[in-house]
Amino acid sequence: MASKQGESKGSAPGKNMLWGGRFTGGLDPLMVAYNESIYYDRAFYAQDIAGSIAWARANKNRGILTSDEFSAIEKGFAQVREEWATNTFEIKPGVDEDIHTANERRLGEIIGTGIAGKLHTGRSRNEQIATDMRLWLHEELRKIEGHLANLLKVVAARAEQEIEHVMPGYTHLQRAQPIRWSHWMLSYGLAFATDLQRLREVVKRVNRSPLGCGALAGNPFDIDRDAMAKELGFDELIYNSMAGVADRDFVVETMQWGSTLMLHMSRWAEDLIVYSSAEFGFVKLADAYSTGSSLMPQKKNPDSLELLRGKSGRAFGHMAGLMMTIKGIPSTYNKDLQESVEPLLDHVKTVGDSIQIATGVLSTLVIQPDKMLAALTPDMLATDLADYLVRKGVPFRETHHISGQVVALAEKEKTPMDQLTFEQLQSVDKRFDKDIEETFDYQKSVEMRSAKGGTSKSSVEEQVKVLKKMLEGQ
Ligand code: ARG
Questions:
Q1: What is the pTM (predicted TM-score) of this model?
Q2: What is the domain range of residue 443?
Q3: Are residue 286 and residue 183 in the same domain, yes or no?
Q4: Residue 43 alpha carbon to ligand 1 centre in Å
Q5: Long-range contact set of residues 224-229: C-beta below 8 Å, sequence gap at least 24
Q6: Of the chain's two ends, which shows fewer C-beta atoms within 10 Å, N or C?
Q7: Is residue 473 in a domain?
Q8: Rounded-to-integer distance, Cα 445 and Cα 448, Å
Q9: Are both 329 and 451 inside the same structural domain?
Q10: Are the beta carbons of 137 and 213 closer than 8 angstroms?
Q11: Does residue 126 line the site of ligand 1, with CB under 6 A?
Protein backbone atom coordinates (compact mmCIF):
# COMPACT_ATOMS: atom_id res chain seq x y z
CA MET A 1 0.00 0.00 0.00
CA ALA A 2 1.30 3.49 -0.82
CA SER A 3 2.42 5.47 2.20
CA LYS A 4 1.33 9.03 2.68
CA GLN A 5 3.92 11.58 1.58
CA GLY A 6 6.06 13.21 4.22
CA GLU A 7 4.95 10.92 7.02
CA SER A 8 8.05 8.76 7.19
CA LYS A 9 9.93 9.53 10.39
CA GLY A 10 12.62 6.86 10.51
CA SER A 11 12.17 4.03 12.98
CA ALA A 12 8.47 3.31 13.21
CA PRO A 13 7.02 0.83 15.68
CA GLY A 14 4.09 0.53 13.30
CA LYS A 15 6.38 -1.13 10.76
CA ASN A 16 6.68 -4.43 12.61
CA MET A 17 3.05 -4.61 13.47
CA LEU A 18 0.46 -6.66 11.67
CA TRP A 19 -1.25 -3.68 10.08
CA GLY A 20 2.01 -1.77 9.72
CA GLY A 21 1.98 -1.54 5.91
CA ARG A 22 -0.06 1.64 5.74
CA PHE A 23 1.59 3.21 8.73
CA THR A 24 4.90 4.94 8.28
CA GLY A 25 4.96 7.33 11.21
CA GLY A 26 5.77 6.02 14.67
CA LEU A 27 3.13 5.68 17.32
CA ASP A 28 3.36 7.71 20.48
CA PRO A 29 4.80 5.20 22.99
CA LEU A 30 1.97 5.95 25.37
CA MET A 31 -0.45 5.23 22.52
CA VAL A 32 1.22 1.85 22.03
CA ALA A 33 0.63 1.01 25.68
CA TYR A 34 -2.84 2.53 25.63
CA ASN A 35 -3.83 0.45 22.63
CA GLU A 36 -2.34 -2.91 23.51
CA SER A 37 -4.39 -5.60 25.21
CA ILE A 38 -1.85 -8.43 25.29
CA TYR A 39 -1.28 -8.13 29.05
CA TYR A 40 -4.85 -9.16 29.72
CA ASP A 41 -6.16 -10.88 26.60
CA ARG A 42 -3.31 -13.39 26.95
CA ALA A 43 -5.87 -15.12 29.20
CA PHE A 44 -7.40 -16.36 25.93
CA TYR A 45 -4.23 -17.89 24.47
CA ALA A 46 -5.61 -21.45 24.35
CA GLN A 47 -8.92 -20.37 22.81
CA ASP A 48 -7.12 -18.19 20.28
CA ILE A 49 -4.96 -21.11 19.20
CA ALA A 50 -7.90 -23.53 19.03
CA GLY A 51 -9.76 -20.98 16.91
CA SER A 52 -6.78 -20.55 14.59
CA ILE A 53 -6.42 -24.30 14.10
CA ALA A 54 -10.12 -24.64 13.29
CA TRP A 55 -9.68 -21.69 10.92
CA ALA A 56 -6.70 -23.27 9.21
CA ARG A 57 -8.49 -26.60 8.85
CA ALA A 58 -11.52 -24.95 7.27
CA ASN A 59 -9.23 -23.07 4.88
CA LYS A 60 -7.45 -26.28 3.96
CA ASN A 61 -10.84 -27.77 3.09
CA ARG A 62 -11.46 -24.83 0.75
CA GLY A 63 -8.08 -25.23 -0.91
CA ILE A 64 -6.56 -22.06 0.55
CA LEU A 65 -3.97 -24.07 2.44
CA THR A 66 -2.39 -27.37 1.40
CA SER A 67 -2.50 -30.32 3.79
CA ASP A 68 1.19 -29.85 4.51
CA GLU A 69 0.71 -26.18 5.27
CA PHE A 70 -2.14 -27.02 7.61
CA SER A 71 -0.04 -29.65 9.39
CA ALA A 72 2.81 -27.17 9.83
CA ILE A 73 0.41 -24.61 11.31
CA GLU A 74 -1.12 -27.14 13.65
CA LYS A 75 2.28 -28.35 14.80
CA GLY A 76 3.64 -24.84 15.19
CA PHE A 77 0.68 -23.86 17.32
CA ALA A 78 1.26 -26.86 19.57
CA GLN A 79 4.60 -25.31 20.43
CA VAL A 80 3.12 -21.83 20.91
CA ARG A 81 0.52 -23.29 23.24
CA GLU A 82 3.20 -25.12 25.17
CA GLU A 83 5.15 -21.90 25.59
CA TRP A 84 2.15 -20.10 27.05
CA ALA A 85 1.32 -23.04 29.30
CA THR A 86 4.84 -23.21 30.70
CA ASN A 87 5.14 -19.44 30.97
CA THR A 88 8.01 -19.31 28.51
CA PHE A 89 6.22 -17.35 25.80
CA GLU A 90 8.18 -14.14 25.37
CA ILE A 91 5.89 -11.20 24.75
CA LYS A 92 7.60 -8.67 22.47
CA PRO A 93 6.83 -5.31 24.05
CA GLY A 94 5.48 -2.80 21.58
CA VAL A 95 5.09 -5.47 18.90
CA ASP A 96 2.67 -8.02 20.32
CA GLU A 97 -0.36 -5.77 20.44
CA ASP A 98 -2.81 -8.45 21.44
CA ILE A 99 -3.10 -12.22 21.77
CA HIS A 100 -3.94 -12.65 18.07
CA THR A 101 -0.91 -10.79 16.78
CA ALA A 102 1.35 -12.39 19.40
CA ASN A 103 0.32 -15.92 18.45
CA GLU A 104 0.70 -15.25 14.73
CA ARG A 105 4.06 -13.55 15.17
CA ARG A 106 5.39 -16.50 17.16
CA LEU A 107 3.95 -19.02 14.71
CA GLY A 108 5.84 -17.26 11.93
CA GLU A 109 9.08 -17.56 13.86
CA ILE A 110 8.54 -21.27 14.38
CA ILE A 111 7.27 -22.40 10.96
CA GLY A 112 8.31 -19.49 8.75
CA THR A 113 6.27 -16.50 7.66
CA GLY A 114 5.73 -18.03 4.21
CA ILE A 115 3.14 -20.43 5.64
CA ALA A 116 2.14 -18.51 8.77
CA GLY A 117 1.39 -15.51 6.55
CA LYS A 118 -1.44 -17.50 4.90
CA LEU A 119 -3.27 -18.19 8.14
CA HIS A 120 -5.09 -14.88 8.34
CA THR A 121 -6.67 -15.22 4.87
CA GLY A 122 -10.21 -13.85 4.99
CA ARG A 123 -10.04 -13.44 8.74
CA SER A 124 -10.26 -10.43 11.02
CA ARG A 125 -9.22 -9.93 14.59
CA ASN A 126 -12.74 -8.63 15.09
CA GLU A 127 -14.12 -12.14 14.74
CA GLN A 128 -11.16 -13.61 16.57
CA ILE A 129 -11.60 -11.65 19.78
CA ALA A 130 -15.34 -12.32 19.84
CA THR A 131 -14.68 -16.02 19.29
CA ASP A 132 -11.96 -16.20 21.94
CA MET A 133 -14.05 -14.43 24.55
CA ARG A 134 -17.07 -16.63 23.96
CA LEU A 135 -15.05 -19.83 24.11
CA TRP A 136 -13.29 -18.74 27.26
CA LEU A 137 -16.46 -17.52 28.92
CA HIS A 138 -18.30 -20.71 28.12
CA GLU A 139 -15.65 -22.72 29.96
CA GLU A 140 -15.60 -20.34 32.90
CA LEU A 141 -19.37 -20.30 33.26
CA ARG A 142 -19.38 -24.09 33.36
CA LYS A 143 -16.91 -23.93 36.25
CA ILE A 144 -19.03 -21.32 38.00
CA GLU A 145 -22.06 -23.54 37.52
CA GLY A 146 -20.18 -26.26 39.40
CA HIS A 147 -19.27 -23.87 42.23
CA LEU A 148 -22.84 -22.71 42.54
CA ALA A 149 -24.09 -26.29 42.62
CA ASN A 150 -21.68 -26.97 45.50
CA LEU A 151 -23.02 -24.01 47.45
CA LEU A 152 -26.56 -25.25 46.97
CA LYS A 153 -25.61 -28.73 48.15
CA VAL A 154 -24.29 -27.26 51.40
CA VAL A 155 -27.51 -25.27 51.86
CA ALA A 156 -29.60 -28.39 51.30
CA ALA A 157 -27.52 -30.54 53.66
CA ARG A 158 -27.52 -27.99 56.47
CA ALA A 159 -31.19 -27.20 56.01
CA GLU A 160 -31.99 -30.89 56.47
CA GLN A 161 -29.68 -31.40 59.46
CA GLU A 162 -30.55 -28.26 61.39
CA ILE A 163 -34.27 -28.14 60.76
CA GLU A 164 -35.19 -28.27 64.46
CA HIS A 165 -33.68 -24.91 65.36
CA VAL A 166 -35.96 -21.93 65.68
CA MET A 167 -34.87 -18.30 65.60
CA PRO A 168 -36.43 -14.87 65.19
CA GLY A 169 -37.43 -13.90 61.67
CA TYR A 170 -37.14 -10.19 60.93
CA THR A 171 -38.83 -7.51 58.91
CA HIS A 172 -37.32 -4.01 59.06
CA LEU A 173 -34.65 -5.76 61.16
CA GLN A 174 -37.25 -5.89 63.94
CA ARG A 175 -38.22 -9.17 65.54
CA ALA A 176 -41.29 -10.34 63.63
CA GLN A 177 -42.20 -14.03 63.87
CA PRO A 178 -40.38 -17.23 64.82
CA ILE A 179 -38.92 -19.14 61.88
CA ARG A 180 -36.76 -22.18 61.40
CA TRP A 181 -33.06 -21.49 60.85
CA SER A 182 -33.34 -23.79 57.84
CA HIS A 183 -36.08 -21.61 56.46
CA TRP A 184 -33.70 -18.64 56.57
CA MET A 185 -30.99 -20.65 54.79
CA LEU A 186 -33.42 -21.73 52.11
CA SER A 187 -34.68 -18.20 51.56
CA TYR A 188 -31.29 -17.45 50.04
CA GLY A 189 -30.75 -20.99 48.81
CA LEU A 190 -33.74 -20.74 46.52
CA ALA A 191 -32.57 -17.35 45.25
CA PHE A 192 -29.20 -18.88 44.42
CA ALA A 193 -30.95 -21.83 42.78
CA THR A 194 -32.85 -19.37 40.60
CA ASP A 195 -29.50 -17.80 39.73
CA LEU A 196 -28.40 -21.25 38.65
CA GLN A 197 -31.40 -21.51 36.33
CA ARG A 198 -30.60 -18.09 34.91
CA LEU A 199 -26.98 -19.07 34.41
CA ARG A 200 -27.96 -22.11 32.37
CA GLU A 201 -29.93 -19.79 30.10
CA VAL A 202 -27.06 -17.33 29.72
CA VAL A 203 -24.61 -20.10 28.83
CA LYS A 204 -26.71 -21.06 25.81
CA ARG A 205 -26.44 -17.57 24.35
CA VAL A 206 -22.74 -17.28 25.11
CA ASN A 207 -22.05 -20.45 23.19
CA ARG A 208 -22.70 -19.15 19.67
CA SER A 209 -19.96 -18.80 17.11
CA PRO A 210 -18.97 -15.55 15.40
CA LEU A 211 -16.07 -17.24 13.57
CA GLY A 212 -16.35 -16.70 9.81
CA CYS A 213 -17.98 -13.27 10.12
CA GLY A 214 -14.88 -11.52 8.80
CA ALA A 215 -14.22 -7.91 9.68
CA LEU A 216 -17.96 -7.22 9.34
CA ALA A 217 -19.29 -8.30 5.93
CA GLY A 218 -18.63 -12.04 5.98
CA ASN A 219 -16.12 -14.47 4.52
CA PRO A 220 -15.25 -14.32 0.80
CA PHE A 221 -13.92 -17.89 0.52
CA ASP A 222 -17.12 -19.70 1.46
CA ILE A 223 -15.60 -20.94 4.71
CA ASP A 224 -17.55 -23.69 6.44
CA ARG A 225 -18.69 -21.89 9.57
CA ASP A 226 -20.67 -24.86 10.82
CA ALA A 227 -17.64 -27.12 10.73
CA MET A 228 -15.52 -24.60 12.65
CA ALA A 229 -18.27 -24.08 15.23
CA LYS A 230 -18.59 -27.82 15.69
CA GLU A 231 -14.85 -28.31 16.09
CA LEU A 232 -14.76 -25.59 18.75
CA GLY A 233 -17.76 -26.90 20.68
CA PHE A 234 -20.19 -24.10 19.89
CA ASP A 235 -23.91 -24.98 19.88
CA GLU A 236 -24.97 -22.47 17.25
CA LEU A 237 -23.83 -19.75 14.86
CA ILE A 238 -24.42 -16.04 14.98
CA TYR A 239 -26.26 -15.51 11.74
CA ASN A 240 -25.42 -11.93 10.95
CA SER A 241 -21.76 -11.13 10.37
CA MET A 242 -22.13 -7.49 11.38
CA ALA A 243 -23.76 -8.50 14.64
CA GLY A 244 -21.22 -11.28 15.10
CA VAL A 245 -18.27 -8.91 15.42
CA ALA A 246 -20.11 -6.18 17.33
CA ASP A 247 -22.17 -8.17 19.77
CA ARG A 248 -21.05 -7.97 23.39
CA ASP A 249 -24.49 -8.84 24.73
CA PHE A 250 -23.02 -12.09 25.97
CA VAL A 251 -20.65 -10.08 28.18
CA VAL A 252 -23.34 -7.69 29.36
CA GLU A 253 -25.74 -10.54 30.07
CA THR A 254 -23.10 -12.47 31.99
CA MET A 255 -22.35 -9.45 34.12
CA GLN A 256 -26.04 -8.73 34.67
CA TRP A 257 -26.37 -12.29 35.79
CA GLY A 258 -23.32 -12.01 38.04
CA SER A 259 -24.57 -8.75 39.49
CA THR A 260 -27.87 -10.35 40.44
CA LEU A 261 -26.07 -13.25 42.06
CA MET A 262 -23.77 -10.90 43.95
CA LEU A 263 -26.76 -8.87 45.07
CA HIS A 264 -28.15 -12.00 46.70
CA MET A 265 -24.73 -12.83 48.06
CA SER A 266 -24.34 -9.38 49.55
CA ARG A 267 -27.64 -9.55 51.43
CA TRP A 268 -26.86 -13.05 52.60
CA ALA A 269 -23.51 -11.83 53.89
CA GLU A 270 -25.11 -8.85 55.58
CA ASP A 271 -27.52 -11.12 57.48
CA LEU A 272 -24.65 -13.31 58.65
CA ILE A 273 -22.56 -10.30 59.67
CA VAL A 274 -25.44 -9.19 61.88
CA TYR A 275 -26.09 -12.72 63.17
CA SER A 276 -22.43 -13.21 64.06
CA SER A 277 -22.21 -10.03 66.16
CA ALA A 278 -22.13 -10.49 69.93
CA GLU A 279 -25.54 -8.83 70.23
CA PHE A 280 -27.12 -11.60 68.15
CA GLY A 281 -24.62 -14.44 68.45
CA PHE A 282 -26.68 -16.84 66.32
CA VAL A 283 -23.67 -18.02 64.35
CA LYS A 284 -19.93 -18.27 64.78
CA LEU A 285 -17.69 -17.91 61.77
CA ALA A 286 -14.82 -20.38 61.40
CA ASP A 287 -11.32 -18.98 61.93
CA ALA A 288 -10.58 -19.84 58.31
CA TYR A 289 -12.95 -17.10 57.19
CA SER A 290 -12.29 -14.44 59.83
CA THR A 291 -9.38 -12.23 60.77
CA GLY A 292 -8.24 -10.54 63.92
CA SER A 293 -7.62 -6.88 64.61
CA SER A 294 -4.08 -5.53 64.60
CA LEU A 295 -4.98 -3.42 67.63
CA MET A 296 -7.78 -5.04 69.59
CA PRO A 297 -6.86 -8.56 70.66
CA GLN A 298 -10.43 -9.62 71.44
CA LYS A 299 -11.70 -8.95 67.92
CA LYS A 300 -12.72 -11.57 65.39
CA ASN A 301 -13.95 -9.87 62.26
CA PRO A 302 -16.16 -11.39 59.55
CA ASP A 303 -13.90 -10.19 56.74
CA SER A 304 -15.01 -12.90 54.33
CA LEU A 305 -18.61 -11.72 54.57
CA GLU A 306 -17.65 -8.08 54.35
CA LEU A 307 -15.64 -8.79 51.20
CA LEU A 308 -18.58 -10.64 49.68
CA ARG A 309 -20.73 -7.61 50.40
CA GLY A 310 -18.06 -5.22 49.15
CA LYS A 311 -17.19 -7.09 45.99
CA SER A 312 -20.81 -7.06 44.91
CA GLY A 313 -20.38 -3.33 44.25
CA ARG A 314 -17.39 -4.01 42.07
CA ALA A 315 -19.22 -6.68 40.07
CA PHE A 316 -22.13 -4.33 39.52
CA GLY A 317 -19.77 -1.50 38.55
CA HIS A 318 -18.22 -3.56 35.77
CA MET A 319 -21.65 -4.29 34.36
CA ALA A 320 -22.81 -0.67 34.47
CA GLY A 321 -19.48 0.55 33.10
CA LEU A 322 -19.57 -1.72 30.07
CA MET A 323 -23.15 -0.82 29.27
CA MET A 324 -22.08 2.83 29.24
CA THR A 325 -19.12 1.97 27.02
CA ILE A 326 -21.26 0.23 24.44
CA LYS A 327 -24.39 2.32 24.31
CA GLY A 328 -23.18 5.06 21.97
CA ILE A 329 -20.89 3.27 19.53
CA PRO A 330 -21.87 3.00 15.88
CA SER A 331 -22.40 -0.23 13.97
CA THR A 332 -20.01 -3.21 14.10
CA TYR A 333 -16.51 -3.22 15.51
CA ASN A 334 -15.04 -0.19 17.23
CA LYS A 335 -12.02 -0.27 19.49
CA ASP A 336 -14.24 0.68 22.43
CA LEU A 337 -15.21 -2.99 22.42
CA GLN A 338 -11.75 -3.93 23.64
CA GLU A 339 -12.92 -2.36 26.90
CA SER A 340 -15.22 -5.35 27.38
CA VAL A 341 -12.34 -7.68 28.14
CA GLU A 342 -10.94 -6.46 31.45
CA PRO A 343 -14.32 -6.02 33.18
CA LEU A 344 -15.31 -9.49 32.06
CA LEU A 345 -12.12 -11.10 33.34
CA ASP A 346 -12.46 -9.39 36.69
CA HIS A 347 -16.17 -9.99 36.97
CA VAL A 348 -15.87 -13.69 36.29
CA LYS A 349 -13.04 -14.07 38.78
CA THR A 350 -14.91 -12.06 41.41
CA VAL A 351 -18.11 -14.04 41.05
CA GLY A 352 -16.37 -17.43 40.88
CA ASP A 353 -14.21 -16.72 43.92
CA SER A 354 -17.13 -15.27 45.86
CA ILE A 355 -19.27 -18.35 45.40
CA GLN A 356 -16.43 -20.55 46.62
CA ILE A 357 -15.80 -18.32 49.65
CA ALA A 358 -19.50 -18.32 50.49
CA THR A 359 -19.51 -22.11 50.28
CA GLY A 360 -16.54 -22.25 52.63
CA VAL A 361 -18.20 -19.87 55.08
CA LEU A 362 -21.49 -21.74 55.09
CA SER A 363 -19.99 -25.19 55.41
CA THR A 364 -17.83 -24.22 58.40
CA LEU A 365 -20.25 -21.94 60.20
CA VAL A 366 -21.22 -23.05 63.73
CA ILE A 367 -24.71 -22.19 64.88
CA GLN A 368 -25.66 -21.30 68.46
CA PRO A 369 -29.24 -22.57 68.81
CA ASP A 370 -29.47 -21.45 72.44
CA LYS A 371 -28.77 -17.86 71.40
CA MET A 372 -31.40 -18.12 68.67
CA LEU A 373 -33.90 -19.38 71.21
CA ALA A 374 -32.97 -16.73 73.74
CA ALA A 375 -33.64 -14.02 71.18
CA LEU A 376 -37.25 -15.12 70.78
CA THR A 377 -39.71 -13.06 72.80
CA PRO A 378 -43.38 -13.77 73.58
CA ASP A 379 -44.54 -10.64 71.77
CA MET A 380 -43.42 -12.34 68.55
CA LEU A 381 -46.45 -14.59 69.10
CA ALA A 382 -48.91 -11.68 68.94
CA THR A 383 -50.01 -12.76 65.47
CA ASP A 384 -50.57 -16.28 66.76
CA LEU A 385 -52.77 -14.81 69.49
CA ALA A 386 -54.84 -13.02 66.86
CA ASP A 387 -54.99 -16.21 64.77
CA TYR A 388 -56.25 -18.09 67.87
CA LEU A 389 -59.34 -15.88 67.98
CA VAL A 390 -59.77 -16.11 64.20
CA ARG A 391 -60.14 -19.86 64.70
CA LYS A 392 -62.94 -19.05 67.16
CA GLY A 393 -64.71 -17.12 64.41
CA VAL A 394 -63.66 -13.54 65.28
CA PRO A 395 -62.88 -11.36 62.23
CA PHE A 396 -59.14 -10.79 61.80
CA ARG A 397 -59.34 -7.00 61.87
CA GLU A 398 -60.91 -7.33 65.32
CA THR A 399 -58.47 -9.99 66.56
CA HIS A 400 -55.53 -7.86 65.39
CA HIS A 401 -56.83 -5.07 67.62
CA ILE A 402 -57.43 -7.41 70.58
CA SER A 403 -53.96 -8.89 70.31
CA GLY A 404 -52.56 -5.37 70.22
CA GLN A 405 -54.36 -4.64 73.49
CA VAL A 406 -52.76 -7.73 75.05
CA VAL A 407 -49.31 -6.50 73.92
CA ALA A 408 -50.07 -3.09 75.44
CA LEU A 409 -51.25 -4.68 78.70
CA ALA A 410 -48.10 -6.78 78.92
CA GLU A 411 -46.01 -3.64 78.39
CA LYS A 412 -47.99 -1.71 81.01
CA GLU A 413 -47.69 -4.56 83.55
CA LYS A 414 -44.01 -5.03 82.64
CA THR A 415 -44.82 -8.73 82.29
CA PRO A 416 -43.97 -10.88 79.27
CA MET A 417 -47.12 -11.61 77.30
CA ASP A 418 -47.03 -15.32 78.07
CA GLN A 419 -46.86 -14.59 81.84
CA LEU A 420 -50.14 -12.68 81.94
CA THR A 421 -52.76 -14.48 84.02
CA PHE A 422 -55.79 -16.04 82.40
CA GLU A 423 -57.90 -13.38 84.16
CA GLN A 424 -55.79 -10.58 82.67
CA LEU A 425 -56.27 -12.04 79.20
CA GLN A 426 -60.00 -12.41 79.79
CA SER A 427 -60.14 -8.77 80.89
CA VAL A 428 -59.10 -7.91 77.34
CA ASP A 429 -61.47 -10.35 75.63
CA LYS A 430 -63.87 -12.92 77.05
CA ARG A 431 -63.35 -15.24 74.10
CA PHE A 432 -59.90 -16.31 75.34
CA ASP A 433 -60.24 -19.87 76.72
CA LYS A 434 -57.93 -21.91 78.91
CA ASP A 435 -56.32 -23.47 75.81
CA ILE A 436 -54.82 -20.06 74.98
CA GLU A 437 -51.72 -21.21 76.90
CA GLU A 438 -50.83 -23.57 74.07
CA THR A 439 -50.42 -20.56 71.78
CA PHE A 440 -47.41 -19.36 73.74
CA ASP A 441 -45.11 -21.92 72.19
CA TYR A 442 -42.52 -21.10 69.52
CA GLN A 443 -42.43 -24.63 68.13
CA LYS A 444 -46.19 -24.59 67.78
CA SER A 445 -46.02 -21.19 66.11
CA VAL A 446 -43.67 -22.40 63.38
CA GLU A 447 -45.59 -25.64 62.92
CA MET A 448 -48.80 -23.71 62.32
CA ARG A 449 -47.26 -22.26 59.15
CA SER A 450 -47.64 -25.43 57.17
CA ALA A 451 -48.95 -24.05 53.88
CA LYS A 452 -46.45 -24.48 51.03
CA GLY A 453 -43.45 -22.21 51.43
CA GLY A 454 -43.97 -21.68 55.16
CA THR A 455 -41.72 -22.37 58.11
CA SER A 456 -43.27 -25.64 59.39
CA LYS A 457 -41.08 -28.68 59.25
CA SER A 458 -42.94 -30.29 56.35
CA SER A 459 -42.91 -27.04 54.36
CA VAL A 460 -39.21 -26.56 54.90
CA GLU A 461 -38.56 -30.17 53.91
CA GLU A 462 -40.50 -29.56 50.73
CA GLN A 463 -38.32 -26.52 50.00
CA VAL A 464 -35.23 -28.69 50.28
CA LYS A 465 -36.75 -31.01 47.70
CA VAL A 466 -37.52 -28.11 45.39
CA LEU A 467 -33.97 -26.85 45.71
CA LYS A 468 -32.55 -30.27 44.88
CA LYS A 469 -34.72 -30.48 41.79
CA MET A 470 -33.56 -27.08 40.63
CA LEU A 471 -30.00 -28.28 41.12
CA GLU A 472 -30.66 -31.20 38.80
CA GLY A 473 -32.08 -28.80 36.24
CA GLN A 474 -35.74 -29.78 36.64
N1 ARG B 1 -7.51 -6.48 20.68
C2 ARG B 1 -8.69 -6.21 19.93
C3 ARG B 1 -9.92 -6.29 20.87
O4 ARG B 1 -9.80 -6.84 21.91
C5 ARG B 1 -8.84 -7.18 18.82
C6 ARG B 1 -9.64 -6.68 17.68
C7 ARG B 1 -8.90 -5.63 16.97
N8 ARG B 1 -9.61 -5.22 15.80
C9 ARG B 1 -9.36 -4.05 15.19
N10 ARG B 1 -10.07 -3.77 14.16
N11 ARG B 1 -8.44 -3.23 15.64
O12 ARG B 1 -10.98 -5.78 20.59
A1: 0.92
A2: 378-455
A3: yes
A4: 15
A5: 224/58, 224/61, 224/62, 227/54, 227/57, 227/58, 227/61, 228/54, 228/55, 228/57, 228/58
A6: N
A7: no
A8: 5
A9: no
A10: no
A11: yes
